[in-house]
Amino acid sequence: MTDLALELVSVTAGYGDNPIVREFSARLYAGTITTLIGGNGAGKSTLLRAIFGTNRHFSGQIVFKGETIEQLPPWERLKRGVGFVPQGRCNFPAMTVEENMKMGCYTLPAGRHVAAIERVANSFPMLRTKWRTDAGNLSGGEQQILEMAMVLLVEPTLLLLDEPSLGLSPKMQGDVFVTVQQVARTGVTVLVVEQNVRGALLISDRALVMEQGRLFMEGPAAEVRTDPRIRQAYLGGNIKQTAA
Amino acid sequence: MTVDAVYLLQLTLNGITLGLLYALIAVGLSLIFGVMEIINFAHGELLMLGAFAMAFALPVMGLLYWPAMAVAILATMLAGLAIYEVLLAPLKPDEFERSILITLGLSIIIIHAMQYIFTATPRLVDTQYGFEGIEIGSIRITWTRVIGAGAALVAFGGLYAVLRYTQFGRAMRAIAQNREAALMVGIRPRVVARNAVVLAAGLCGLAGAAISPIQLVTPYMGQFLIFKAFALVIIGGLGNIPGAIVAAVALGLVENWIGGFFEIVWQEAAVFVIMIAVVFLRPDGLFKRGGMRVG
């Protein structure tokens, strides 16, 4: 982990007149998985949205591939390689899987659509079996996979995932984590917010801990996992819990 | 009361024609609502502008129907573009109340500006087809009605193809279905909103051009149409395009039947009676599921 994929320099961001994330600085390294941990309302989703550009940026720099991107609209960031899968069901429910995939190609030149869809559909065989099903009729896990696939069509080098396993069965959560690992192995840098902190830490290289909008702690995932404060606050103390 | 079959058939055919033209308005309104989450209260005025454009273009074009209609459609699309860029583009997604005041105000301004410039005198619009028509037995339908209905059907076919098979159109459905997912895939909401407004304005232009040889053209002709179209959008299910078309054709029929057999005053009230009944009995509209949705 030497190459810098993303650098946040004292980022303050939020909604309307309310900054939620305050003076947040962090670095993500190329090809690694970083977990963003924090309680409810700590500002995790706000930080991801700030990196993708769908909320209000107050101050600070977001440096991606040597370029400051904090003033760019989301579609420009997407074109540069920042992909974001928001929390909750984030697809087009009354469109088929095929149409959703076509929408995923929105920023690509028309000539590349077929090849991009072919490539991503090969990585997620489930999608082909549901090709003509409306996205709204897929299971929660299938929708999550579809959403990740839609973003991977444009080959982002940074993937922001907001609660990918939320509301999924333990089995499906495991599948999603495996998928995230597969994606990272192709060289994509991943920043993931997860309610399943234990599971996320197990697949992550590094972890960022956020409290009340500020960076509270950062380090290798293995260290953060064993930190007593983190165990107490996010991993349920001593209670034995199987990781996904 | 005895019902004359020929008379009923005549009313029915006229009703279908009128309904298809209503549907053009309702579909555009639905499209703008789906993409921008606003009700365009100046929508009827776009129809009126289209009708006026037709009325002025026809004499210039030597009464030729199709070139004049093309001019009318183009003119309303430009009006739609201007309305979007000047008044609607600055709106933020959560400013529904402002959008009502802006479009309602715009509607009143357009009506009175047109009345000031062109007076309120109703205009009779003549085309190359005059009052000729086809006669089947003792039934007679003017060509302008037949062509108006045909043009509307072609427009629906085209609209369906655009929404279904092009990224341009799919982006409109996408944004209506999930705004955040639209951003996720890199859609630019303002570009899509502008496209939707211009497209909807074009449908209004088509309807206005088609209706001008059928009804008298006045600055007020669009005023009540917006409320009817809005009622149709509610009856058909918000954002449901086939629903709006079916509701519009049904309304055209009901209006003509009522107008043909009862006091004419009931014709105007019918749609709103039906709308209120639908809102009470089926709050999500008659056609909640399925169809080509933009919302």
Overall mean confidence score, pLDDT of chain A: 91
Query: How does the overall form of chain A come out from the CA principal axes?
Result: globular
CATH architecture tag of chain A = 3-Layer(aba) Sandwich
Number of domains as seen in the coordinates of chain A: 1
Count of distinct structural domains of chain B: 1
Supply Rg of chain A.
17 Å
The spatial strand order of the largest sheet of chain A comes to: 6-7-8-3-9-10
The name of the CATH architecture of chain B is Orthogonal Bundle
Stretches of chain A where pLDDT is under 50 for at least 5 consecutive residues are: 239-244
What does this protein look like?
The complex is a heterodimer of chains A (244) and B (295). By secondary structure, chain A is α/β, with parallel strands linked by helices. Chain A is built from ten helices and ten strands. Chain A has one domain: 3-Layer(aba) Sandwich (Rossmann fold), CATH 3.40.50.300. Helix content of chain A is 36%, strand content 28%. Chain A has a six-stranded mixed sheet with strand order 6-7-8-3-9-10, with helices on both faces. Chain A has a four-stranded antiparallel sheet with strand order 2-1-4-5, covered by helices on one side. In chain A, strand 1 and strand 2 form a beta hairpin. Chain A is globular and about 45 Å long. Chain B is mostly helical and 295 residues long. Chain B has a single domain, classed as ABC transporter involved in vitamin B12 uptake, BtuC, CATH 1.10.3470. In chain B, strands 1-2 form a two-stranded antiparallel ribbon. In chain B, strand 1 and strand 2 form a beta hairpin. The longest helix of chain B is centred in the first third of the chain and has 32 residues. The interface between A and B is medium-sized, with 29 and 16 residues.
